[in-house]
């Protein structure tokens, strides 16, 4: 994109699902029709969306071209906005299926990473911070926690720090499906000293605090961490990493990714990797600590973008920079 192009923050984009009627229709189908048949309907719907949404086509192609250049042509295999839109449509469906309680722990493909360490910590009532993204479907994990299907023998308290504005209609319908979907969801703009004390207590009592870290704040847009992502500078949310450092708890990067771009019998890779950055720092060292933690996150995000190139659901120009120079 040209430098003179006007910066448009992701929160200024229209919500992809601007009415709750499509989601309610999907919900009705899932209740009365076998899930595999509903999955088949996703294909023509995705194709229709591809034809009608120039924005989705443009932004998917932009991201995939940047990724292909970064990987020297190795990933993605082909530049295909359709595959990315199809994957997004399946993700929306899977979120609803998750909140209906139809996803079980045996649908998860676990790996030889830090997942077992996290499970053992939670068993001992030791809490943690999880950092995820809009790559894949981290909300799938949240729905599993609500049904206590996590491999942990106890119910784990969980607080999710989530920007609500961009998915208002979708979230409203999901709460109708399962009221637990709105439980302990905190909008970042409401966070103050009392909230931080409550989050700190939750972690100390064996709970989880969950962030997504690939979108800058809708409310505080002038502060970010600017780092190369897929070979080009991008802004990441300073506040997420600041709050993580202030909580000073064991921190894990978490990704939930479908094993295949499309499948009628989906299974989900769960990747859990512990952050190696030390969060114990003095006030003067804090900015360096925040930047180091953010850099770790960006490296993980790049790693899984390479492996799952069509499961990226940021449909806006990720590399358009704000006027802020970054931290």
TrEMBL record:
The chain crosses the membrane at residues 25-51, 236-257. GO terms for biological process: glycolipid biosynthetic process. Pfam families: Lip_A_acyltrans (PF03279). InterPro entries: LipA_acyltrans. It is found in: Cell inner membrane. GO terms for cellular component: plasma membrane. Keywords: Acyltransferase, Cell inner membrane, Cell membrane, Membrane, Transferase, Transmembrane, Transmembrane helix. The keyword Chaperone does not apply. One of its GO terms (molecular function) is acyltransferase activity. The keyword Transmembrane applies. PANTHER family: LIPID A BIOSYNTHESIS LAUROYL ACYLTRANSFERASE, LIPID A BIOSYNTHESIS LAUROYLTRANSFERASE. This is Predicted acyltransferase, LPLAT superfamily. The lineage of its organism: Bacteria, Pseudomonadati, Spirochaetota, Spirochaetia, Spirochaetales.
